[in-house]
Structures are given as C-alpha cells and as structure tokens.
User: Which sequence fits this backbone?
C-alpha cells in the first residue's frame, strides 16, 4: 500500500481522470492499492479508452470501495506478478489459489469464487485425455504458466516426472499459448474453464478451441495481499470489508452478472 498526500488541485485533477485511467479515488485518500490484472479473458480486460472491466475487476472494486481506499490497476503476467506481490511491488492480486508457499508472503481473503482448470485443444487436433496421467503421455507438450497452481494431484505428478521439458512448455502470458496452439507447437494448454467459454463467444481466436472433459482441478480462489505492504490491522479491516460485501449480496450479484451463480 502506498501513502498518498494530495492537495486540492491534485485531487480535482485526478478525480476528473479516474474513470479513464483505471485509477479510483475514494473518500479516504491517504492510501492507494496497486492491483494486478492481465488483459485477457473474462476476468480482466483493458479497453482502448482505457478502462478495465471484467469479473475480477468487479471483485476488486467491490472490496476496495467498501474498504475505502483508492486503487490503481496494472497489467502484469502471472508469474512475474506473484514475485512482485512477494517483494511488495504490488499490493493485491485476485483469483489466487491458497497454498502453503504463498501464505508465507501473502494474506488471503475469501474465497472469491470457485475455479475450474481444464485442458484446451485445437479442434483439428483432439487428444483423448481421460485422466491427469494422460497429460504426461501426449506426443506434443502442453503449455502451462510458470508458478501457476493446477491442483494437488497435478503438482504431485509433476514432481515425479523426470522429463518435464518433453511434456510441458512454460509460457509467460496467455496470448503465447494461443500462438503455439495455432502453429501446432503444443497439444494444448491448461486454463480456467470460464475464460475459455467466455473467449469462445467473444474472441475469434478461440473459435477453433475445444475442451477435454477432464477437470484438472477445481477449488476456491482468493483475494491475495502482500504482507510487505499490508499491515495486520489493514488485513483485518479488509476481512471486515469482505464480510460486508458478502452479506450485502454484492459478491453474489457479481457472480450472477457473469453467470457463475
């Protein structure tokens, strides 16, 4: 969290630009949270205006507006963002799996919602994938994101694998997954199911993508806050803000808006 001191002229100027920039000024202007998103899928999208919108954007705004702190959205790839959260270069991420390693450097609040990880393929090149073990036997590698969490069963199998490089390619961002799949460099990629379904309806690049019936992982995901920048007192107030938006029905309204209720 950054402490911000504004004079009257600065307040007026920033307020006028708030909606266009993704920067929001609250009544309590002595703090600013830097929130990570990526311009991809239904979770977060950046228009040309620019203006961020999407599922996780709505979740972030609901919580931080209730908490009473201003916020600024930044676009950062997943793996890099986790490192930035750890060292305090960003304050907040959304839809983060709560695992032991991350709990050393992040506070978790939630859960926000359920996340379902699936295997996406090109419709012209479909593979039979009845179980997680089958992911380790395909003729071409699978694209995954470094430092992403694909569930306990997948993680345990990955630790046992002696030839990871033959079966998996680490990619820094989601767009590269699509490019590799389009050119036949990979057999498919692991992804949040909701993102795939959303993109199939809104993005021509996804018209040739199909999903395996295999559910790689399904579990709750959370708001995550950097322990380097968020105090315990602020953490407890954020938890109170979460309880308030949950009890008021705001979280349920967001899920309903995106047909996840």
Assistant:
């Amino acid at each position: 969290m950054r402490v911000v001191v504004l004079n009257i002229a600065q307040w007026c100027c920033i307020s006028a630009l708030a909606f266009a920039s993704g920067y929001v000024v609250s009544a309590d202007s002595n703090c600013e949270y830097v929130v990570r998103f990526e311009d991809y899928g239904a979770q977060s999208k950046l228009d040309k205006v620019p203006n961020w919108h999407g599922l996780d954007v709505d979740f972030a705004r609901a919580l931080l507006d209730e908490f009473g702190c201003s916020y600024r959205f930044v676009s950062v790839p997943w793996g890099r963002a986790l490192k930035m959260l750890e060292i305090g270069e960003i304050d907040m991420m959304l839809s983060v799996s709560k695992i032991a390693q991350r709990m050393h450097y992040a506070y978790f609040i939630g859960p926000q919602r359920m996340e379902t990880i699936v295997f996406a393929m090109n419709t012209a090149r479909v593979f039979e994938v009845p179980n997680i073990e089958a992911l380790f036997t395909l003729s071409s590698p699978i694209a995954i994101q470094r430092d992403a969490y694909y569930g306990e069963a997948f993680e345990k199998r990955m630790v046992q694998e002696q030839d990871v490089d033959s079966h998996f390619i680490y990619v820094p961002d989601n767009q590269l997954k699509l490019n590799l799949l389009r050119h036949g460099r990979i057999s498919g990629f692991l992804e949040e199911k909701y993102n795939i379904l959303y993109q199939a309806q809104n993005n021509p690049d996804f018209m040739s993508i199909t999903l395996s019936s295999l559910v790689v992982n399904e579990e709750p995901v959370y708001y995550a806050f950097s322990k380097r920048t968020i105090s315990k007192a602020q953490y407890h107030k954020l938890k109170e803000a979460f309880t308030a938006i949950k009890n008021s029905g705001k979280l349920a309204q967001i899920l309903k808006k995106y047909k996840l209720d």
Notes: The radius of gyration is 19 Å. The mean pLDDT is 86.
